[in-house]
Structure formats: structure tokens, C-alpha cells
DNA sequence: AAAAACTGCAACCGCCAGATA
DNA sequence: CTATCTGGCGGTTGCAGTTTT
């Protein structure tokens, strides 16, 4: 209670502000300054809650507001700050005189976000997007069929296996083991640049999905590869990033590898090696 | 010309933390 | 210490204007 007691007492206006209301609020704040917002409506003769008055002042009536389209410089600042601060709009706004958090938030949601996605950049991480749900489903579909286990490759060796080599070599066998002979990192990168490849972890990942919906523990054990245990979805994505880094692949899009980053919560359980 | 879809933005809502009674 | 109030914040909604069909 308490918090909304005023709105119960008298019918408060909602929605867009009329020019008359703006004038009343502007006059009041100009005369008395910003103080206790809860008392502003009464003193200014407004049928609004104090919170609404505050918002109207901050986002619209304040004399130091800039308005108008964002400059390229402002856009760059927002992008840079968002990369560091995330959705802390108030903190971002603090670095842009004359701009409000609401304004920046709207600009981000309606414009910048789309712009980044068009460029293939994940607006949340500011890193290149290397995945999509369709690709993942296709890949799972691929694993469902034994005969199509490995996608086509110019190499005689199945791509997934070759990547396993690469991971083995570059991680000292930490992530995935391989019984075959070694290959050099450089050649892996050169060979598979711009090729569609399978995600070698997806086998484990897919097993995990099946297991997570299966309460029978013995089934779970048989589905698990030796030495693998459940890990979170985020963990899975992290593993992939490590792989790419270890392969000296800066632009993961070159590999056209499908990760799971855009599906938070959808596939909650995957595996990693113990 | 009209309807539907899209877009941008203003405003609201719920939550939280700090201040105060 | 607890309850209440207030301001601040980020997420979301709703609406008006614009564009597309």
C-alpha cells in the first residue's frame, strides 16, 4: 500500500501530456526548482503522479535536452559504452550531455541493435554472430542420420574428425581426444577456412539434450561419452570460443561453424570433458 | 484509396535501494 | 528493526505517424 495511495484518492491522468500540462509543470519547476516530486502535482495543479511529472521533466521538458537525431560521434560513443556497460542506460546517458537514458534506450532498441545485427554482430556481446537456430537444427538433423554424420568435405577425412585433431593438438587433448596422427594448426585453419564444418562437440551436446529429458540414469550413463559430464549451455558456448581461440581463428564466421549462442535456455544441458 | 504492417518514441510498470519515520 | 515513502532504473507497452501492400 502507501505507494499508490495517492492514485487511489483521486483519479490521476495517464497517457500523453497535453501542452497545458507541460506548461504547468514547466512553470512550477522553473519557479521552485526540482524538489520533492510527490508534492509537485498538487502544487503545480496537475492530475498526475509525481513519478509521471519527474519523467516528463527529465525526458522532455528539461531545458538542457538536445533532441534530434544522434550524430555519428554519439552513435560511436553509445556503441563503445554499451560494449562495456551493457544495458546501463543511465550510465551511458551520463556520458552524453543532453541525452536521456530513455532516448538512448529507444535509439538502441529501434536502430543500433538492428544495425549491428545486419553487420552480423551480436548486439549483446558485440562479437560476430556465428550461429542461428536453423543451422543448429540442421546440424542435429545431420547427426540423426548415421550416413550423413559428416558433411561433405574436399578432404578424405571427415571434417568433424579433422577438427577433433585440431582441438586435440591445440588443447593438448584437453577438450577432445583423438587417436589419429597430428596436424598442424596452420594447415587446419587454411584447409577449413570458408567451409561448412560439423561441431565436434555437438555429438556430446545432442546426447546431453536427450539425457536431460530422460530420468533413467542408466540410459544416461550409456549415452554419455566416457569422461564427460553435464555443463550449462553457457559453458558450451564458452568452450567453442576457446576452441576458436586455440585454432587462431579470429573471425569464426570464416569457419561457418554453428554454435548455440543465440538460444539461451533452449538447450540447457550439454557435456564437457572432466 | 484503404487496410495492414511497420517504426519510433513517449510513457508506464515493476522492482530495487536508500532515506526516513 | 520494521514499515513506508521516494527516486531511479531498465524493460515493456501502446499509440501515432509512416510505409507497404
From TrEMBL:
Residues 9-61, 62-116 form the HTH myb-type domain. Its main location: nucleus. Residues 9-61, 62-112 form the Myb-like domain. GO terms for molecular function: DNA binding. InterPro entries: Homeodomain-like_sf (IPR009057), Myb_dom (IPR017930), Plant_SW-associated_TFs (IPR051953), SANT/Myb (IPR001005). It holds the Pfam family Myb_DNA-binding. This is Uncharacterized protein. SUPFAM superfamilies: Homeodomain-like. One of its GO terms (cellular component) is nucleus. It is found in: Nucleus. Keywords: DNA-binding, Nucleus, Repeat, Transcription, Transcription regulation.
